[in-house]
Design a protein that fits this description.
Blueprint (H helix, E strand, L loop, with lengths): L5 E7 L3 H18 L3 E5 L6 H9 L5 E5 L6 H11 L4 E4 L4 E3 L3 H11 L4 E10 L2 E4 L7 E3 L2 H8 L9 E4 H6 L11 H12 L4 E11 L11 H14 L7 H14 L5 H9 L5 H7 L3 H4 L4 H9 L4 H9 L1 H11 L1
GO molecular function, one term: hexosyltransferase activity
Protein name: Glycosyltransferase 2-like domain-containing protein
Organism: candidate division WOR-1 bacterium RIFOXYB2_FULL_48_7
Length: 327
Amino acid sequence: MSEAELAFCVPTYNRAAYLDACLENLVSQARKFQIPIYISDNASTDDTSLVVAKYQAIYPLISYEKNNDNIGPDRNFEKVLKMSSTAYAWLCSDDDRLAPEAVEEVMKIIQARQPAMIVVNGGRKERRGINGRVKTLAAGELTDRNELLAKLGWHMTWLSCLIFSRQLISQGNFARYYQTNFLQFSVVFDYLARAVEPVYYVAKPLVNNANFSVPAWYQEAFAIFGRKWHDQVMALPEVYSQTAKKACIKVHGVKSRLFGFKGLIISKLLGYYNYSIYAEYSRYFAMISDLPKWFFFLLAVIPLPPFVAKIFKANYERLYKMMLRLV
């Protein structure tokens, strides 16, 4: 493989500490294969530029651009992908880490297959390695668009599990999906609706998330992964069947566990789920969860003293890890 066939593309904003650890991880793998790293800084006000300079001093194949103004995450994702000129671009979130064998695994696929997109499995890192969140899908090419949407679409919301081909980047309709929360997902399926090309799935978990803090989107989980997720998937081109779309919507809520028992309890303890949320989003519950509607209602009306949410937020990482083991 030539040195111009794969790049790491990192969008970032005000997360210098995460970016530091991210670049340490990426440089350790990039150096062996002379892989370029592109960073698009969305007008950070912290020490992001200093962190980048530190790694540029030891690895010159890092290109860094800082936006004058915050252009939003979707446009920043597009920008960093288009900063690269390689045959494939791996979109990497700054709070995710690649397994030591990740690059070699992906390079083998690029050499042998040249798919439109590579999707890798990922999950939380445990004692025995990364516990991949996709459990039952075998590795290989997926050529049926509806099968891809139904079986893997839910997982393709995860930035760092997506490796884009140059053709997809150049022909993808990014502008259509600005401010949707799911640009990285929608651009791919929009492209595949127009171009029948294979997507290769890597079943071996190659990405793990290193962030145990309260996600920035958690307060809006029902708006983003309830209403917006439903509406975005259902708005995909008509070449995708209603059955595949509905399966994709449901599987995300179930397999991500966001709207399972544990996920709902976490939302409640954070103070992000109450009766007003129930009333606004109840019509989506059957489409995003396997839990009965009465459970949503019961959890919504149970009072939560404000101090409980305060304590849970303050100890989120420790309590969240405990819940991962117990629930």
